[in-house]
Specification:
This protein is an alpha/beta fold. The protein is 33% helix and 25% strand. It has 6 helices and 11 strands.
Length: 249
């Protein structure tokens, strides 16, 4: 039984994977994953789900390095040595990146998960605190991608750095022309963000030679699924799927 851990800037997901299926997935704010109490919390979640925590392997994709020693110790108490997703082992795709060691573990996991589901060329878009794009050509070569602030971060930054603009919910607006400050903000952030996503996707698709499949994932992706014909594939657990794929390498 595998314990897969996806550490993001905002949330951390813990998944229990056995015989090709997820028995449970739990989410916890990353800021709370700071000590042994997380192990107690995991045991409580497992007990409520009637799942034992007799794990024989544990793999983590983390973008928050200070938390990694804590997670390693928790996994030791559960009986497994924690491995971290990275480029230290041979991967089933080629990396053409200036410094592969600087490539985020979540991005590696997303590529692994995407290649489990669909044939390349692929463009993976992970919409979260930051939004990352991964471009993989038809020869399974990761060429690079793009990174931009996530939509919620844009809303937070506007509210924090202006005197009168509030933070807004990311629900899709009914029109492009906002008839109030809140509606104008929602139009600018949501519709504007769709425009940014589409522009990057179209440019990458052209550089990949066309016909790339686009996959959306991430905690904020659901806000955008119905807003563009480019968003046809949504895999909410893509990073966890990639972590599970890494565990089998």
């Amino acid at each position: 039984m595998l314990l897969a851990i996806d550490v993001g800037n905002t949330d951390t997901k813990f998944g229990i994977y056995k015989d090709g299926e997820w028995l449970a997935v739990w989410r916890r704010p990353t800021e709370l994953v700071t000590g042994p109490q997380t192990g107690d919390w995991l045991r409580e979640q497992a007990n409520e789900a009637n799942i034992g925590l007799a794990i024989d392997s544990a793999v983590c994709a983390s973008v928050v390095p200070p938390i990694e020693p804590v997670l390693s110790e928790i996994c030791r108490t559960l009986g497994a040595e924690l491995r971290f997703v990275g480029v230290t082992i041979k991967l089933p795709f080629t990396i053409r990146y200036e410094n592969p060691s600087k490539l985020g573990a979540d991005r590696i996991a997303n590529i692994l998960g995407a290649l489990q589901e669909l044939n390349p060329p692929l463009i993976v878009v992970d919409i979260g605190t930051a939004t990352t794009f991964e471009a993989v050509n038809r020869d399974r070569v990761f060429l690079g991608g793009a990174i931009l602030p996530g939509p919620e971060l844009l809303s937070t930054a506007l509210a924090a750095n202006t005197a009168q603009l509030p933070k807004i919910e990311l629900s899709p607006p009914s029109a492009f022309i906002g008839g109030s400050t809140e509606q104008a903000l929602r139009s600018g952030i949501v519709h504007g963000y769709v425009g940014a996503l589409e522009s990057l996707i179209k440019g990458m698709n052209q550089e990949l030679g066309g016909a790339a499949t686009v996959i959306l994932t991430g905690g904020r992706a659901q806000h955008f699924l119905e807003l563009s014909p480019l968003f046809k594939h949504y895999i909410p657990r893509l990073t966890l799927e990639g972590i599970a794929a890494f565990a089998s390498l």
